[in-house]
Specification:
Layout: H1 2-23, E1 45-50, E2 56-58, E3 79-86, E4 96-100, E5 108-112, E6 118-122, E7 129-139, E8 142-147, E9 149-150, E10 164-165, E11 168-170, H2 178-183, E12 194-200, E13 217-224, E14 236-242, E15 248-255, E16 259-266, E17 273-277, E18 288-290, E19 293-295, E20 297-301, E21 303-304, E22 319-320, E23 322-327
Parallel strand pairs: 1-14, 2-15, 3-10, 3-11, 12-23
Antiparallel strand pairs: 3-6, 4-5, 4-7, 7-8, 9-11, 12-15, 13-14, 13-16, 16-20, 17-19, 17-23, 18-20, 21-22
């Protein structure tokens, strides 16, 4: 009996020590990050068939990554506190969180995360809403500002006088603001992943010999370039799109952030030309389609809305669609 009690005491002491290691503080007095569960594997091939009337696609559908475990930040009166992490549960230093008042008198506050991913700021007495959350990453040969996802899926501040804890996550794909997706399901602002837009015109032997044949089927294959995705995603996307009777376009949203090898052919195997077009070609020399004009295959990097980490709106995707015009050689 004495031995059983002693063993039970040792086990309870060990459990207490493990809990302290996960939720206690380090030698500098900072809250420790808990041990993280493994990320889900994002692999395989997703296949989609778009009809002539369908002009947008959410590549990752309703799948959301699992959220990391955060240290337990304390509520502090009239303060917004919390942590920012990547999906692996590593603290993100230098992320931006911005507040602004909703009343007639404009009041703003902001903070940046420290080396432990922690931020803290005073909430104005009149109350405020989170309006900006961002972080700038190195992306390809350039940079990109990314909006941050609230880990609980909500951005409203409840009971700010008693203090609010709000954690954010750096995603490579996922669903952003639901109202934005409902109003504009084709818009990349409703998703955290990258966006591609494909324009095309209809073939005419005399006036437009480079156009696509009406009712033809375009086949696209998107394969992530090894080592470029944010969290090691390897999922491929095979998309078949039937061309309608008139000129048009279609958009592919919510692709996990990285670089992709892209191939474009007709269903009969004929290679298509791809040309990087649109108003932002010269603005992003390191992103978009590379080379700018290709036949059959190329590589594509997504284009950010900005490189300024203070610019992204909260809970909205922050990638511009890369516009690629398809045609016959």
């Amino acid at each position: 009996m004495q031995f059983t009690k002693l063993l039970l005491g040792i086990l309870l002491l060990g459990a207490g020590c493990n809990k302290s290691e996960n939720t206690g503080t380090d030698e500098n007095g900072q809250l420790k990050w808990p041990e993280q569960t493994p990320l889900q594997e994002v692999s395989g091939t997703a296949t989609f068939n778009l009809t002539a009337d369908e002009d947008f696609l959410n590549a990752m559908q309703d799948f959301m990554p699992r959220m990391p475990a955060f240290p337990q930040a304390k509520q502090k009166e009239l303060k917004l506190t919390g942590f920012v992490a990547d999906l692996r549960g590593r603290p993100v230093e230098g992320a931006y969180i911005g507040l602004r008042s909703a009343g007639t008198v404009y009041i703003a506050a902001s903070a940046e995360t420290d080396g432990n991913g922690y931020y803290e700021m005073q909430v104005p007495l009149a109350g405020a809403d989170i309006y900006a959350t961002g972080y700038t990453i190195d992306y390809g040969a350039g940079q990109a500002a990314i909006s941050l996802y609230p880990s609980d899926g909500r951005v409203a501040l409840s009971n700010p006088s008693g203090g609010v804890v709000k954690n954010f996550v750096l995603l490579s794909f996922g669903l952003a603001d639901a109202s934005k997706r409902a109003a504009e399901p084709w818009s990349p602002r409703g998703y955290y992943g990258g966006s591609l837009r494909f324009d095309y015109s209809i073939y005419d032997a005399m006036w437009n010999p480079g156009g696509l044949p009406a009712n033809a089927q375009v086949e696209l294959m998107l394969e992530p370039v090894t080592g470029t995705t944010l969290y090691g995603e390897t999922k491929k996307f095979a998309i078949t799109k039937r061309i309608g009777q008139g000129n048009g376009n279609f958009v592919i949203n919510n692709l996990p952030v990285g670089a992709y090898n892209i191939t474009a052919t007709l269903k009969n195997g004929r290679q298509l030309t791809m040309k990087y077009t649109g108003p932002y070609v010269s603005q992003y020399p390191h992103h978009g389609l590379q080379p700018r004009e290709a036949t059959g295959s190329g590589r594509v990097w997504f284009t950010p809305m900005s490189t300024d980490y203070k610019a992204p709106n909260v809970n909205q995707g922050y990638w511009r669609p890369v516009t690629i015009t398809l045609g016959l050689p």
